[in-house]
Amino acid sequence: MEMTGAHIVWECLERKGVDTVFGYPGQNVARLHDALRDHPSIHHVLARHEQGACHMADGYARAGGRPGVVLATSGPGATNLVTGLATAMLDSVPLVAITGQVDSARLASDAFEEVDVTGITLPITKHSYLVRRPGEIAPALREAFALARHGRPGPVLVDITEDAQKAAAPFSWEAAEPTRHLRHVPPAPERAVLDEALALIRAARRPLILAGHGVILSGAVRELLAFAERTATPIATTLLGLGAVPASHPLNLGMMGMHGEAWANQAIQEADLVLAFGMRFDDRVTGDVRTFAAQARKIHVEVDASEIHKNVRVDVPVLADLRAFLLAVLPELEPMAHADWLERTSRLRERAGAEAILADDGGLRAPSIFHELFRATGGRALMVTDVGQNQMWEAQYYKHEMENGLVTSGGLGTMGFALPAALGAKLARPGEEVWVVVGDGGFQMNMRELMTVVQEGLKLNIAVVNNGYLGMVRQLQEFFCGRRYAAVSMASPDFVMLADAYGIPGRRVDRRADVASAIQEARACPGTFLVEFQVEQELSVYPMVPAGASLDRMLRRNGHGADRATA
To answer: How distant is the alpha carbon of residue 388 from its chain centre?
Structure first.
């Protein structure tokens, strides 16, 4: 069967089960958009900016568990994907980006809208392809999807020249089956390594699991809980690990790290065995690596060989898929009891003090918003957060009960992520209640995607936490620059009026007493609803481990009553 390169692209996507593509048209993908009309099973979401389209595909992948697809033209269209690709790369999100390119004959001639996008994106993708002939399209796309999912997931870019889209070639799905890059498929756990890990697990008296994003990516949520319960091992999670363990589970200590729970950080420092499951010892988790879990032996289960020993030297490195490892060790473990250790971690938590920060004194502090959101939804909404103080308060005060209930940018820390990512997440899980959590700064970066939300007819609940500052940077300047604020005061439009211009109803809240009713109004609205929360301006996120400090050297709250996280 012969068809044009443009039709081969859509035929491949259909056969991979793709039903949604996010993108923006342009000259060098005009052939692709023309051919799309012959493939009505695929819905194209027209973003207002290519970065937004990439975040949409990212949110779709995180929420739905299968690769997101983004389409952009050459030149500025392709370069506008860079931040989105880097965001997906650092958080191990499976994504396939398809870009148009100038004709093969004009490559390297500085032609209009020509840029070496494969060269630009090599460091921020698992692989980048330049396709010059129509017969190469199907093999490249099939391999791109395999690479995006196999091993440690990540983004892959396929750049297709205009003449390759225009010309025709024989198409054979079977002949295009990928055969390369099988090194990305994780090996089975080795017997000798399993024995070493089992010996440490059986000998431990103060074990602690550090659960990361890999728990969700490997589909190991149930196996993780079975392991923790059988071995009586408490669990601390990374930011992206939130949603791997129900917040109400008695073994869940909550989030660790720079803005994590103080009792979780203290438990890390007192543990005699750390089991790092699907996490990469990011600096926001470890603090000073020289003092991180200094009393503990360490087992690291990781699917990406480059992450082993990269940041923290471990005693037993296990290069394997996490679920495969847990399935291998579970039958060999007898039930354990660590009563003294569990009592110790319980005491650490009890010493945290009252939640005085949530008290209603008439004003509005940001943590109250997330506390009320948790109360209203029971921890079972799909939360999509931006980056900064709003992200950390959500992680601290919204208790995630739903598996894979948080979509957020962790490794890159991309402001402007939340709104477009939530759009993608809603399309992946249309039956879920989705909340967009964003600060006034991050919202202004990609608020143009409100029109995409409206055009798609989606129901999102948007919480804009407006404190008039770039809050996290202001906090750093308060702590470490003597409150010499520079370039952090943020003027904003009237967000409620802005939403109205897009045909979205909204409401402004500046009192604690009105938070619950505003949340209820948003939830009851059949379409998208925006709530602008005007909060106390100079409230900081506590606790905070200063960059490079030890985990137990946390800065704690001095005002508003007892510190919620004092250990």
So the answer is: 14
Taking the CA of residue 177 as centre, how many other CA atoms within 13 Å lie in the half-sphere pointing to its CB?
A: 3
Q: How far is CA 459 from the centre of its chain?
A: 21
pLDDT band at 363; cut points 50, 70, 90: confident
CA–centroid distance for 438 within its chain = 14
Contact 323, 302 (CB under 8 A): no
CB atoms within 10 A of CB 202: 12
Element (H, E) at 127: strand 127-131
Q: What is the pLDDT of residues 1-54, one digit of tens each?
A: 899 999 999 999 999 999 999 999 999 999 999 999 999 999 999 999 999 999
Rounded to a whole number of angstroms, the CA Rg of the chain reads 24
Cα–Cα dist 6/9, whole Å: 5
State residue 560's pLDDT score.
35
Rounded Cα gap, residues 72 and 90, in angstroms: 21
3-class secondary-structure state, position 135: helix
DSSP characters over 97-110: EEEEE--GGGTTTT
pLDDT, position 287: 92
Half-sphere exposure of 274 (CA within 13 A, CB side): 32
Give dist(CA 331, CA 349) in Å, integer.
32
Task: Give, for 503, the enclosing helix (H) or strand (E).
Answer: none
Query: With 0-12 CB in 10 A as exposed, 13-18 as middle and 19+ as buried, what is 473?
Result: middle
State pLDDT tens for residues 145-188: 999 998 899 999 999 999 999 999 999 999 999 887 666 667 78
- The torsion of the CA quartet 336, 339, 344, 348, rounded to 10 degrees, works out to 80
- Hey, which bits of 410-549 come out as E strands? 434-439, 461-466, 506-509, 529-534
What is the pLDDT at residue 186?
74
Residue 369 three-state SS: helix
* Helix (DSSP H) and strand (DSSP E) numbers for the chain: 23, 20
CA distance 30 to 376: 46
Task: Please say whether the beta carbons of 364 and 534 come within 8 A.
Answer: yes
DSSP state of 190: P
DSSP-assigned letters across all residues of 436-470: EEEEHHHHHHHGGGHHHHHHHT---EEEEEE-SB-
pTM beyond 0.70: yes
